[in-house]
Amino acid sequence: MNNKLERKYGLFTAICMVVGIVIGSGVFFKAQTILQITNGDMPLGVIAWLIGGAIMLACILTFAGMSQKYEKVNGIVDYAEATVGPKYGYYMGWFLSTIYYPSLTAALAWLSARYTLVFLTTMFPNMPLLIHINEGGVVVGPECIALMLFYLCCSYAVNALSPKLAGKIQASTTVIKLIPLGVMAIVGVIAGLASGQLTENFVAPPLAVVGSKGSILFAAVCATSFAYEGWIIATTINSELKDSKRNLPKALTVGGIIVIATYLLYYIGVTGGASNAELIEKGATVAFTNIFGNVIGNILNLFIAISCIGTMNGLMLACCRGVYSVAARGKGPATHMFSRVDEHTNMPNNSAVMGLLLCGFWGLYFYLSNLAGTWSHKTVFTGTIFESVPFLFDPTELPIITIYALYIPVFIQWIRKQKGTSVWQHYILPILAICGSVFMVIACLVSHGMGCFWYLIVFAFVMVLGGLLNRRTQRTVRAAGV
């Protein structure tokens, strides 16, 4: 056993991780969510995508500057530790390890299972395979949950036992998922202009008017946060990236631009294949079916499943390293155990097992609260919580908004501490990133309401637990030193 990770990834793999982790399920099902929130107001939806992308890019460029200066074992934790302080860095790492990474990984595992089953049952209608749909139109049931757990275990095995294979999977799934997006972006626009559907969708008034445009825009931008999130996870491999101080900023910047362009072109292309009402009710699949036919339209579900699997793989990569990034600093629980790196796989296996267990926990919560309706008879997975139910919240968006809130002190201290850089890097970019992060927090409060309150209780409990475990470890270390 040793405590060092080898540099095994190149620039192309890093770019694929940024693009592959970000472009996943979000671009497919959150596009439908944004249409639902805006009631088919296409221009407002485009503005939401642009605002969300601009906020992401401002944060990316700011962290790209940090990546040229700080380097250790987990990018965002390194930046928080170097700018705000070791204690803040620890809590940032603890949050990422226990809430952020595993909650999103579990959600992506379910989405991978959902689209896989939809594809199989549509392609092979005589198969003895049941899909259970709840009243919100969400796929649930034992088959879906079993496949979800299977995907989690497979992703864990690949990342923990063969990290190089995990990198290849990330690169290949990135290429595969861009195929339907690119085809729809080009063919959808051409077909939509030829039929007049694209123009009709953009000039048509909203199907209904619910709330002010400002509140609707806040909710729509909040929904884009899930689609745009994930790029920060690529910074977790900075200690495993060849020439990371040069390649990581390139990967973050190039990957971010690719993501924004892809989302906008796809969103516009989809509107050329179906009416706003059809897209709101059935999602992007109806646009593919209308343009390419039933068979190819159903193949979209396979591409979406592959896309989700690729995103889940990238998130699991971060899960496997989450507790390790904390333990490598001598903090958190059982540092000696979680900081070990296997000499054969060059992976922190103990940390990886803990990451898998946390994914299982958040997967159980996600299923019971948001899918099975144990807390409420209404689904909250669309991003809108319709009623105040104790400890009922959306674990796919709220952890993402939390990370934006945690960025703010990092950006402020970066402005205070950095020297010898241009005005653009020193002031303009960080200030834009701060404004964007504050916007995301306000959008979350407006769109999620009381769900934020219940989530914050859970968040506070986890943070207090992390503080207590860290204090216990530090006391043990001091006692051993004596």
UniProtKB/TrEMBL annotation:
Signal peptide: none
Key words of the record: Membrane, Transmembrane, Transmembrane helix
Compartmental location: Membrane
Matching Pfam families: AA_permease_2
Membrane topology listed for this record: Multi-pass membrane protein
InterPro entries xrefs: AA/rel_permease1, AminoAcid_Transporter
Primary location recorded for the protein, binned into one broad class: membrane
Transmembrane segments: 9-29, 44-67, 88-111, 131-154, 175-196, 216-239, 251-269, 348-368, 398-415, 427-447, 453-469
Annotated protein name in UniProt: APC family permease
Organism: Faecousia intestinalis
